[in-house]
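Lay summary

Proteins are chains of building blocks that fold into shapes. Our project writes down both the chain and a compact code for its shape. Here are two examples, one after the other.
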Amino acid sequence: MDIYELESASGVVVSVGGQLPQNIALRLQETGGANVLGTDPKDIDKAEDRQKFSEILDSIGVDQPAWKELTSVAEAE
């Protein structure tokens, strides 16, 4: 936020680097009040989070393959 504020930026573009910039964009917007230009980080998060995306598909009646999130090898066995 130091550079953002020093430059009196009107916004920030977060476009490359994978998941890390996405996580930073969410924090910049939510806690720092930065104006993230382009797709809203919350919408990107909804598309990338399997559970959130599945809930969206369910809410609009789109069929999807059965899936399950596992957090350990024991759960997979």
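And here is the second example, written the same way.
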Amino acid sequence: MAWVRKNYGVPAQRGMRVEYTGDGKVETGTIRSASGGRLNIQLDTAKHTCQFHPTWELRYLMPVTLATVKPPRELRTRLREDV
């Protein structure tokens, strides 16, 4: 998977969610592995993985964590006052 990230410049990681739009409809899935420069993705509607090119009709869905979300200004002010 490191090879795919380096050579295609994508943030692919095992377990990452993706959105595939190649069949004219939006489908979501999970990256399970990589082999031969392709990603093995299990679409939510499928039992098994299928191979996808890392840059073709895929959108990588970044997880939202507390570290990536900036709290509202009023909450930041209250947090500073509590310290």
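What can we say about the second shape? Helices lie at 2-8, 73-82.
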